[in-house]
Amino acid sequence: EKRDQEEEEEAMAGEKKGLQLLDFWVSPFGQRCRIALAEKGLPYEYLEQDLSNKSELLLRSNPIHKKIPVLLHDGRPVCESLIIVQYIDEAFPGQGAPLLPADPYARAQARFWADYVDKKVYDCGSRLWKLKGEAQQQARKEMVEILKTLEGALGDGKFFGGEAFGFLDVAFVPFTAWFLTYERYGEFSVEEECPRLAAWAKRCAERESVAKNLYPPEKVYEFVGGMKKRLGIE
C-alpha cells in the first residue's frame, strides 16, 4: 500500500491532475476556452503566459505552434481553441448543457461558421488597426461584410444555436469585446450596420460565463493602443 502511494505521488509530480489553461488575458481564443469551461461548470487552474518570453511549459505543451491557449487535462495537452472547446464538450458530457448540437447537420453548420469566424474576424480586425489609407478602408469594408454575413447566419434567433447558447456563440462572443476597437479604427458602428448582431452581443454579455471572462471594450482598445506603440505603428 505504501509503495502504491509512493508511485501515485511520483505520477502526480510528473503530471498535474485536473484541468489547467495556458492563456493570455486579452486573447479572444483563450476566452473561448474560459467561457466553455464556465458553461460546463468545470474548475481549472488558470496559468497566465508571457508571450514575449514563452514558458517551458507552453513550448513543451504546444511544440508545433508554440501558441496559447493550451488546455492540460491530467497533464495531457489539447491545442487550438476550437478543438479545445469541442474537447471540453465531449470529454465532460455529463457537465452542463451540450455546446454542440446533437443533430449532425446542425453540428456541421456550427463548425462551418466557427471556422469562418476564425479565418475572417481576427485577421481583418488586425488590418483595421495596423493599416492606414486605402488598405484600412478595404479592411473596413471587409469587416462590415463579415459582420453582416454573420448576422445573416444568426437570423432571427436568440443565439446562433437558436434558443440555446452554444458552440458558435462561444466561438464568436469574445470578439464582441473588440467591436469598439474595430469601430474606432474603421469609423463605423456595429449597432447601425448590424443591429441584430449588436442585440445578440448584449444578450450574451448578460450570461455569467461571458461577463466573467470578457474584459471591458475600453481595456481592449487600450491594449491595442499599446500594441501599436510597441510595433512602432502611429
UniProtKB/TrEMBL annotation:
The Enzyme Commission number assigned here is 2.5.1.18
Q: Which UniProt keywords apply?
A: Cytoplasm, Transferase
Its GO biological process annotations read: glutathione metabolic process
Mostly located where?
cytoplasm
Annotated GST C-terminal domain residues: 103-223
Protein localization: Cytoplasm, Cytosol
Q: Could you name the domain of life of the organism this protein comes from?
A: Eukaryota
Signal sequence segment: none
- A GO molecular function held by the record: glutathione transferase activity
In this chain the GST N-terminal domain maps to 17-96
Quote the Gene3D superfamilies the UniProt record gives.
1.20.1050.10, Glutaredoxin (3.40.30.10)
- For this entry, the protein name equals Glutathione S-transferase
Taxonomic lineage from the root: Eukaryota, Viridiplantae, Streptophyta, Embryophyta, Tracheophyta
